[in-house]
From TrEMBL, chains A, B:
Domain of life: Bacteria
Protein's name according to its UniProt entry: L-erythro-3,5-diaminohexanoate dehydrogenase
Pfam families for the chain: KDD_N
Coiled-coil residues: none
The L-erythro-3,5-diaminohexanoate dehydrogenase N-terminal domain, residue ranges: 12-163
């Protein structure tokens, strides 16, 4: 039934027929023995995706409005037992995990060593997982799940060693959004002295993207936030050349705000997780410019039809969460910038 | 109520408050008089978007299974009268129109002259339209709607003059997909001797993209089609270096087919309008490569999470239907390639 040769994408652990990718699979093979390019992690904590946890919480709230923590815990155990991975069947989402490297296959390309404390940067939705302690240390409340068990990484998985010099929760919080500054660095570097607008600039991915843009040579950075409270926060952090308030869902308001602050932008980075920001981001960007969509609320057709309807010659990128070296870059940006570090620390 | 100064995006004709872009508006101002940067077109024919027409047809089918053409016609007239544009409220889609330039505002940047026969390449969903003949020459069956009336183009609209040397229906059919070959040309030109895979290669946008890729310097083009019938068609057209059959929704099959034909690809162009092709397109593309998604069935989150889950360092582009000069490029490619021309002509 299973393949004897491993595939870097983890296909050899997919039990579904016809074969699908691990993320799309109903069920993964969680055998403890490793294929030569795999790594096994002793799990210490699961970080459930926020949307997934909220769905579980809603489903298991009593009539009196109390969250039934035992029922939430049982639901998570059932999912992991049935699927061999933590992927909420309703939301489709997973999360990440923290643990210690337990065994490294002889042909693993990940560069990990036994004993390394790591966070996985690929989703739990495609990571083989076995829970061994019945989650007995978790009360079923909150997204942070203390856990004893093991997980398996494939040849093409991504895991980052948690640095010694930072609070582990701070590191995780940075790694969670490290794709955005990495791609921003790459795109801004293609322009000469770019004007860069970041929409949702006081958030985690937004603030790191602002700092990344400046380091990559941006001549002017414009941070767009929704209200005065975030404007004060961002101004206090000192990481944007200009701070402007605009509703990103209002295309005309967003365009006008960015233009008044020195735009239109050569590069616009959308980091705000609300639907309907495509038109404004396109209008705020110059011809020949680039929009990077990092929000999962982005609508593909709204972006494609919006640009066509506006005859806008802009390059639109689907924000890929993976760029080589992304975790190291994001941690370095945080270490080197007191303002962005304060923004992160106040969220812990 | 309305603005006295025009905006190139057409905001001055939006009657909704708060103000939204013309495409999102419930109602446009269809006054006959032009703002200085506008153009008025005498309409000859509407081409309804296929999804929109199918929805109208379904809604107005009698119990006996007959399409009630009068009811379909009445529905279109009602929409245009209520909204000042032809945008199906259910599907959100519009279509395009053909007509003759009737008046050109003194500051129009579109370069059109009175008497030019044109096709609009911006959607009907944002084009002010008045129907003056009650659509009396249309029986309510089919997407081609003979029509007398007028439409207005904005400063940033796009219209292409229909060439004299080609069948007008052939020109329209080419212009309908001209964004794909234009963006393919631009992206392939950034690589040295690229390997280019086109998924859905026997279709309109796919076949033009193959020819565009070759002209832009691709060293090898791979056309992916779903079955033997299309493989024969594509082989007969002689526009792909390699023709392979694969189900684009099966990531492993798509990857393996492209690799066997000389891949992975530096550039993968997705032109097939079925959901679930994101993973395969990513897997079929080399690290450092680019995937251009031209299918409206693309899921933003499937692309973003898919690439991250595969640790794939690929650039993913939202296929923008507008690139300057796109219509001229596509018509030139068609004129210069007998194979692609035959593929288009057999669809008329």
């Amino acid at each position: 039934m299973t393949q004897s040769v491993s595939d870097p994408t983890g296909l050899h652990r997919v039990l579904d027929r016809p074969l699908v990718l691990p993320q799309a699979a109903q069920r993964l093979d969680t055998r403890r023995e490793l294929w030569p390019d795999e790594v096994r992690i002793r799990v210490e904590k699961l970080n459930l995706d926020a949307a997934s946890y909220r769905q579980l919480e809603r489903t298991h709230t009593t009539e009196a409005g109390e969250v039934d923590g035992d029922a939430v815990r049982a639901a998570v155990l059932d999912i992991v037992a049935a699927r061999g991975k933590m992927q909420n069947p309703e939301t489709g989402s997973g999360g990440m995990l923290v643990g210690t490297v337990e065994e490294v296959g002889e042909r693993s390309p990940l560069g990990l060593r036994v004993g390394d404390r790591v966070a996985t940067l690929v989703s739990l939705t495609l990571t083989p997982l076995v829970v061994e302690d019945g989650l007995e240390r978790w009360d079923g409340r909150g997204e942070q799940v203390p856990c004893d068990g093991y997980a398996v990484l494939f040849g093409r998985s991504i895991a980052a060693v948690i640095p010694d010099d930072l609070d582990p929760d701070l590191s995780l919080s940075v790694m969670d959004v490290c794709g955005a500054p990495a791609l921003t660095t790459r795109v801004v570097g293609r322009y000469q002295g770019a004007t860069v607008a970041v929409v949702g600039a006081a958030g985690k991915s937004g603030s790191l993207s602002l700092v990344a843009a400046k380091e990559a040579g941006a001549a002017r950075t414009i941070g767009v936030v929704p209200h005065q409270g975030e404007a004060d926060l961002l101004t206090g952090a000192g990481i944007a050349d200009e701070v402007v308030i605009a509703d990103a869902r209002d295309p005309v308001a967003l365009r006008d705000a960015v233009v008044r602050a020195g735009g239109p932008a050569d590069v616009t980075v959308v980091c705000v997780d609300v639907p309907g920001c495509e038109g404004g981001a396109i209008l705020a960007t110059s011809d020949g410019g680039t929009v990077i969509f990092f929000s999962m609320a982005t609508s593909f057709s709204a972006a494609a039809l919006g640009a066509e309807g506006l005859a806008a010659d802009v390059t639109m990128l689907v924000g890929n969460g993976y760029t080589p070296g992304h975790a190291d870059l994001a941690l370095r940006l945080l270490r080197g910038n007191e303002g962005v570090r304060r923004l992160f620390e106040r969220r812990l």
